[in-house]
């Protein structure tokens, strides 16, 4: 089944970002894709939290989500909206949505692992200072198959993906806005590792390039098959990429190396002295 990935350079104006998203959804549908995947923070990417606050609202009020739902319905295509910054009950949430071809929200997922790091380049990020961590792991039933949801920094925590594949996930979605230093070091190997150890397809739509808030993101939106082979790597340029996903490939790989069937509880660690 044909899918589309939208690699974008989101800015500080949600109106401009939503125009790009709607155009991508229309183009993906016209090309025959059953589903389109967008990056983390598709609606707004702004490290200036004071400025960004003016655009952040609740899920019910968010104009980007409303426009994407309308576009999914208009063009008859499923959308994994990688994530939006939204106002939660008390703090902000980094929330992704699976939207069907009638514009209905079929699943929600809040990013569980928050990016609190200091990089050698001098970049410092503290998501936990504004965002609440998600408390649910989620699989969405889609025309592609069982889609396990995650967001960006989650990729470094393999137990999440093991839980998703144990629960039946056949495809793992990892929308992201990776920094350039961490992307160059780890992006490809992490995506391939998650695919291989779970015998799942991995779909990772990413932000790319120089953004209005002066950050740079790594790009390289990717599709990796359950054997770990890279089916699509979009490099650094924004735009649409396409790939074909077949669940028979999942069955083939799991038949060859049945990693899920062979999993067993890990006994407590003993410290030998």
List the helices and strands and how they pair.
Blueprint: E1 2-7, H1 14-30, E2 35-37, H2 49-53, H3 63-75, E3 78-87, E4 92-99, E5 105-110, E6 116-118, E7 124-126, E8 139-142, E9 145-149, H4 158-166, E10 171-173, H5 180-198, E11 201-204, E12 208-210, E13 216-218, E14 222-224, E15 230-233, E16 239-244, H6 247-256
Parallel strand pairs: 1-2, 2-3, 9-10, 10-11
Antiparallel strand pairs: 1-16, 3-4, 4-5, 6-7, 8-9, 11-14, 12-13, 14-15
Entry summary:
The protein has 6 helices and 16 strands. With 273 residues, the chain is of the alpha/beta class.
Give an overview of the whole structure.
A hairpin with a 5-residue loop joins strand 6 and strand 7 (124-126). The protein has a six-stranded mixed β-sheet with strand order 5-4-3-2-1-16. The mean pLDDT is 95. By secondary structure, the chain is of the alpha/beta class. It has helices at residues 14-30, 49-53, 63-75, 158-166, 180-198, 247-256, and strands spanning 2-7, 35-37, 78-87, 92-99, 105-110, 116-118, 124-126, 139-142, 145-149, 171-173, 201-204, 208-210, 216-218, 222-224, 230-233, 239-244. It has a single domain, classed as Nitrilase/N-carbamoyl-D-aminoacid amidohydrolase (4-Layer Sandwich), CATH 3.60.110. It starts with a strand and ends in a 17-residue tail after the last helix. The protein is 27% helix and 27% strand.
Short key terms for the protein model shown above:
six-stranded mixed beta sheet; alpha/beta; Nitrilase/N-carbamoyl-D-aminoacid amidohydrolase; about 270 residues
